[in-house]
Amino acid sequence: MAHGPAKGISRWLFTTNHKDIGTMYLWFSFAMFLLGGVFALVIRAELFEPGLQIVEPAFFNQMTTMHGLVMVFGAVMPAFVGLANWLIPMMIGAPDMALPRMNNWSFWILPFAFAMLASTLLMEGGAPNFGWTFYAPLSTTYAPPSVTFFIFAVHIMGASSIMGAINIIATILNMRAPGMTLMKMPLFVWTWLITAYLLIAVMPVLAGVVTMMLMDIHFNTSFFDAAGGGDPVLFQHVFWFFGHPEVYIMILPAFGVVSQIIPTFARKPLFGYASMVYATSSIAFLSFIVWAHHMFTVGMPVAGELFFMYATMLIAVPTGVKVFNWITTMFRGSMTFETPMLFSVAFVILFTIGGFSGLMLAIAPADFQYHDTYFVVAHFHYVLVPGAIFSITAAVYYWLPKWCGNMYNETMGKTHFWMAFIGLNLTFFPMHFVGLAGMPRRIPDYALQFADFNMIASMGAFLFGAAQILFLFNVIATIRGGKKATDEVWENPEGLEWTVPSPAPYHTFSVPPEVK
Amino acid sequence: MTDSTQNSTRIITLKLLAVVVAMFVFAIYVMPPLYNLFCDITGLNGKTGGRYQPTEIVVDTSRQVTVQFLATNNENMPWRFQPVLQSVKVHPGEEVEIRYYAQNPTSRDMVAQAVPSLVPFKATDYFHKTECFCFNQQPLAAGSSAELPLRFIVDQDIPDQLHTITLSYTLFDITGKFGADEGAVSALVEPDTATVENTALAMNRFANEPAVSGL
């Protein structure tokens, strides 16, 4: 049974090892992160000054669309699946994932999906230009011909996510070591279990909505076409029924990551473990009944606006429970600030800012003012960049010594953190101001009064981009060499993954550990 | 992995796959009809009902409701399209017929579909159409015109505070739905549809065309 990895490229093509597949997911998502980042920098370069300098408006629209799609489906989601692959079996004392062959397949269809999506940039008529939310009829009647490739790419990504989610649920429910009861599972495992259920529930809805688009475009149906008796507003309902749980799919595993990291560096057990589990479950449940807060302006009855407004605000309660739990964990702890902790503390602070702007957007009457402005862009970047991206970065710094057996360079890690922290706040904080002052999102040019803030945002974006290159360099340097890490890596970290040697052997827990 | 683990993994996988299939079916086959039903019940989006069978009606001559008519061309729709009257005052319960005027100024035969919408949403339950050109597609030969009939009844139960109803039609060009085949469109268009009677005939002939639901 125990044998090492195969030699050469076939190791990666045919592997069923959760660590190999996790590694591939993480590298793939980093590649997509850089690609989506390049698209973002094209956007910020164009917006550096008012007027049209660098790209045509049509191409600008393709950049905003591709940036969103690549970051959501290519960078954030695969990164969390990669972390799940690496960590869940080690955290629950399982030898591997429950369905290793499907695991291989769910990874290897992803590069094809994104190659297809990226290839639309070279097609006649250009890449999709209707925004990552692809509202009909922009994405049906008025779409470029490449929309069909976009649809099939989304189908493949959806299939990959669904397979990943099935695998994770089967692993967590079936493969736990003896004694590892559900309420003993590390929070990262818990948050992923809930996330996987969300994926199972809503990725088919995403597949459904793009299938309806496909039929409207090619087979003369009229799901979203008013002339044939359909309704474009239906698109928005179906899309956001997927879309709102999707934003929690991107943040719940992040909650899990920081819930692992903060106790280690505060040297205290996590405060309120059970309440964390229940809060995560409540957030997941509420995510299904708030979708219409993305579309307050479509013309809803007042009762509808009120329902979705209050339901949305209700989410602040379980989220607040989590934030207070993290703060209480740190309270009177013997805190040290290694790089993973820096990213995690920044996560708590900045994600809370994003949560507050979310509450502002939840106020239905005020949302009519904020709708489709840069305030919305500022809001969701504050929850996604310091939320999802910072937590993934923190996770990589935290577990990298376990994965490759070497310590990363702490100075370089801290430099990365401060560049990213300053860069992201410079980029996204001014967007609140220009948004409140009325600058619409997704435009290549803007009125002169927004010039200064946009210039600051663009400079911040390039700083943030440069920080990621440093990150790449640090990770490669750590894999190639560096100070050897101990088996525990940190001081008394909690969890089974720290009981195996560093670097983690190719096969771990072939004999299940005993959990007391 | 032991046999029992493998077995339960298989069961969980199948269950989750069933959920996936169910959610996909839910998105495509349940959500759109559910949405339409919801709109029907609430009058949301101003969707009006289909053909109304008049029941025993008492005309309420004590009050009048103003019904205003709007016409909008969807983008790039070249037809002239307007109501013959801007508004009428009707007694609740009374059946009234009005006409819209449509002209195809282009040199090609075209087919249009009018989609109604009504405000205030609360009034949708009290506005009944017994005959409407929007129930059918409208073929018009190049250069010809037609008057399109609409017969409606404002329900005698309409609440007092609703004294003005605005009915809007948006005209969509659906010639493209018949494909690139010019013959298919020409076949819909009578050689001489300049009169209402002929248009009505043409309309009746195509009354069996796949009717658009919910119009």
TrEMBL record, chain A:
The entry's keywords: Cell membrane, Copper, Electron transport, Heme, Iron, Membrane, Metal-binding, Oxidoreductase, Respiratory chain, Translocase, Transmembrane, Transmembrane helix, Transport
Q: Name one GO molecular function term.
A: oxidoreductase activity
Q: Which domain of life is it from?
A: Bacteria
Q: In Gene Ontology terms, what is a biological process of this protein?
A: aerobic respiration
User: PROSITE patterns recorded for this chain?
Assistant: COX1, COX1_CUB
- Domain named Cytochrome oxidase subunit I profile: residues: 12-516
Gene3D superfamilies membership = Cytochrome c oxidase-like, subunit I domain (1.20.210.10)
Got a GO cellular component term for this one?
plasma membrane
Iron recorded as keyword: yes
Pathway(s) = Energy metabolism; oxidative phosphorylation
Membrane topology classification: Multi-pass membrane protein
Listed transmembrane segments? 21-45, 65-87, 107-127, 147-175, 187-214, 234-258, 270-294, 306-328, 340-364, 376-400, 416-435, 455-476
Query: Which InterPro entries does the entry mention?
Result: Cyt_c_oxase-like_su1_dom (IPR023616), Cyt_c_oxase-like_su1_sf (IPR036927), Cyt_C_Oxase_1 (IPR000883), Cyt_c_Oxase_su1_BS (IPR023615), Cyt_c_oxase_su1_dom (IPR033944), Cyt_c_oxidase_su1_bac (IPR014241)
Pfam families the record matches? COX1 (PF00115)
Record field: catalytic activity: 4 Fe(II)-[cytochrome c] + O2 + 8 H(+)(in) = 4 Fe(III)-[cytochrome c] + 2 H2O + 4 H(+)(out)
Q: What is its EC number?
A: 7.1.1.9
Q: Of which family is this protein a member?
A: Belongs to the heme-copper respiratory oxidase family.
User: What is the recorded function of this protein according to its Swiss-Prot or TrEMBL entry?
Assistant: Cytochrome c oxidase is the component of the respiratory chain that catalyzes the reduction of oxygen to water. Subunits 1-3 form the functional core of the enzyme complex. CO I is the catalytic subunit of the enzyme. Electrons originating in cytochrome c are transferred via the copper A center of subunit 2 and heme A of subunit 1 to the bimetallic center formed by heme A3 and copper B.
NCBIfam families documented for this protein: CtaD_CoxA
What is the recorded name of this protein?
A: Cytochrome c oxidase subunit 1
Q: Which gene encodes it?
A: ctaD
From TrEMBL, chain B:
Recorded GO cellular component terms are: plasma membrane
Which Pfam families does the protein's record reference?
CtaG_Cox11
What role is this protein assigned? Answer: Exerts its effect at some terminal stage of cytochrome c oxidase synthesis, probably by being involved in the insertion of the copper B into subunit I.
What's the protein called, per UniProt?
Answer: Cytochrome c oxidase assembly protein CtaG
Query: What is the organism field in this record?
Result: Pseudomaricurvus hydrocarbonicus
Q: Which InterPro entries match?
A: CtaG/Cox11_dom_sf, Cyt_c_oxidase_assmbl_CtaG
Q: Which domain of life is it from?
A: Bacteria
SUPFAM superfamilies to which the protein is assigned, alphabetical = Ctag/Cox11
What's the family?
Belongs to the COX11/CtaG family.
Its annotated compartments are:
Cell inner membrane
Bilayer-crossing regions: 12-31
Membrane topology of this protein: Single-pass type II membrane protein
